[in-house]
Amino acid sequence: MEFGPHLMLAMLEGLVQASVLTLTALGLSLVFGVMRVVNVAHGEFFMLGAVLAWWVTTMLGGNPAIGFVVALVVAPLLVGLMAAAADWLVLRRVEYDPERTIVATIGLLYIIQQVTLMTYGPDAHPVTPPFNTRLALPWYEFTDQGFQVYWPWGLSITSYKLFVIAAAIVTCLGLWLLMARSKIGLILRATQLDSETAQAFGIPVERVFALVFGMGAALAALGAVLVVPIQQAHYLMGGDPLLLSFIVVIIGGLGSFRGTVVAAVLIGMSDGVISVFFTPTLAKMLATLLVAMVLVYRPQGLFGAKPA
Amino acid sequence: MAKKTFPTRRKILTGMAAVGAASALPDVTRFAHAGSHSAPIKIGFQVHRTGIGAAYGRWYERTTMAATKVINDAGGINGRPVEIVAEDDGTDPKRGAEVLEKFANQHGCDIAYGTLFSHVVIGSAPRAAELKMPYFVVSEGHHVASGMLNRYTLQPGITDVKSQVQAMAPFVASNLGKKVTMIFPDFAFGHNHRDFFSAAIEAQGGEVVAKLAIPPTETSFTKYFPQIPRETEVIYHVMVGPSVLTFVKEMGEFFGPSAPQIFGFIDSLEAVDFATPGLEFLEGTHFWEGMPRYAQADQTDYDKFYRAQVGVDNNGASLDDPKDISTYSHMFACWETLYVIKQGMEAAGYTGPQDRTKLIEAVEAITDMPESNEHPQGAKLFNGKTHQVFGPQHISKVEGGKLVVQHTTSLEDGFYPDEVDYTTQSF
């Protein structure tokens, strides 16, 4: 394939990856921003979302669209509730102490992964997409007859992949509205700024924390439900999203909404493009190098606020 | 406080238990002495129960247990029952080596057997040699026959990749096309395909126009496909692991209506149902199969017997669950390897671990393996010098969502000059 169409395809694929990564990283960033908890189990909440989506669609059977829509609601809700319960039962008991929450979430990671292995099993299972039409894409060239549009071989995307990109944009906008324009958002931001003062003003900080931990996990689960018709649900699928989410939130700035979105698109796209034209190893090396540079020269991240 | 002079209830109970155990002890030792000739032969089975090889592991275990039952029902090996000691290797090389140590030191196994993924075999084989434990692998890689491993490692149940691709290259070149793009996993097993098929297709006057190595942990593939040159006549694909279905589906989405000829190694679709949405484009494409997944019109009685014992229906699915598709193209090797172990132990008069080297020499002396209930995949030839067996290969076409065999290769098609002589190595 020629360079132009090839780059276009790599970017489209990178954009799909970036969309899912944005949702997952936003969940991690939200939890850190408000609660100052580094959630190592975040990737497992992602995996749970995918596994529950398979479970829901298999249980319902029938038209794949119905199963998918139900999964889109049920899986994030269940994962969110599970995470809120984990917050209530575990994180609250260790008083959100930074070191102890890391150990506690590592424990959660193994419990979730092994329970999934024991119940769901070690195999990967596919989820049928609700719709999946192949869309051939046009490209252009300048010939003797001037500007011409043509249809390069292989340059295409599917309607479902476009839907994933659109769904991620809508979710981001919704989350931004929630954070910036709603009362819940105000409470969350107040808790993020100074949880002790917020508590003094009557904000039930513990309940807010459970809500935030649940929301963070639900966002990861939502990303997984969106991606599972493209990939498959597998009990080991949580590792990559966790690593990439950490890279994203460090580069973007822990707790920064704008930074997380920008960094997720940057990392998702660069991973897509560099791994195609060079090697996937180089893409990971550059991302890690970027993390190192950010930590050295701008520890608060590209968009993070400087500590007072 | 006054000291207690009477023993407590707990002490009395503990004492009674100790007396009971001591009185039972002579029975235990007597059984061990008297039973040394009827004690089971313990075969340590490295199985991919978890990790990326789990689909294979599930079926390797079913096949192994089925073969063991048939062997035991027929009187075992040298009059002794066979006991399978299965341990999960997690499809992980480090864990694989640890499992071998457990077999030797904890379970007291006679030999080690099992496992498919080449990195686990390569990671475990040196430990087998250190433990001086015969290690019968059910892999496909060329690492055994290349001389990379050691005299304790044997592959008597399945043909290696070098032989497979060499046997099939003539069919590809003369029926599908001569300009081939290869898509393979970027590790040992994939590199075997890359190197040996490239050489084999060139020998047929063909050419590999592009080689796409994909990291084994990759979960999305469309971005790699534009590297396929437009002049490609045949796509040769082989992928392994949990993402195989995604790989094949995305390949169909990429090509749309204008796909070249497609020749796949069934590894890309082992344990996957052809009826899965998105795989319709595979109709009319070709696959390599070690053993045909679908019962063919000329099905042998041996295949019927083997299928029934393992619990697989005529479509290659579990008799209990038609959606549970077997790894039919590979798992026969477990069945056949256990029979080679049986044959070797009987020829060596194997009585215990002191006879391990005799067992290896006896297996090295095996040559012909006629098609039979013991070797349902087909007649084979074992090369004692390279520790590698050679068998027939099948090329099938997808017709009506089923694989129909078009061509079966001869043993000679897969022969190549020896690269090692393990029999000259000391134990």
UniProtKB/TrEMBL annotation, chain A:
InterPro entries: ABC_transp_permease (IPR001851), BCAA_transport_permease (IPR052157). It is a multi-pass membrane protein. It is found in: Cell membrane. Keywords: Amino-acid transport, Cell membrane, Membrane, Transmembrane, Transmembrane helix, Transport. One of its GO terms (cellular component) is plasma membrane. It holds the Pfam family BPD_transp_2. Its main location: membrane. The chain crosses the membrane at residues 15-38, 45-62, 68-90, 102-121, 160-179, 208-230, 242-267, 274-297. This is Branched-chain amino acid ABC transporter permease. It comes from Profundibacter amoris.
Automatic annotation (TrEMBL), chain B:
InterPro entries: BCAA_transport, Leu-bd, Peripla_BP_I, TAT_signal. PROSITE patterns: TAT. SUPFAM superfamilies: Periplasmic binding protein-like I. GO terms for biological process: amino acid transport. Residues 40-401 form the Leucine-binding protein domain. Keywords: Amino-acid transport, Signal, Transport. The keyword Chaperone does not apply. Pfam families: Peripla_BP_6 (PF13458). The keyword Signal applies. PANTHER family: LEUCINE-SPECIFIC-BINDING PROTEIN (PTHR30483), PERIPLASMIC BINDING PROTEIN OF ABC TRANSPORTER FOR NATURAL AMINO ACIDS (PTHR30483:SF6). Belongs to the leucine-binding protein family. This is ABC transporter substrate-binding protein. It comes from Profundibacter amoris. The lineage of its organism: Bacteria, Pseudomonadati, Pseudomonadota, Alphaproteobacteria, Rhodobacterales.
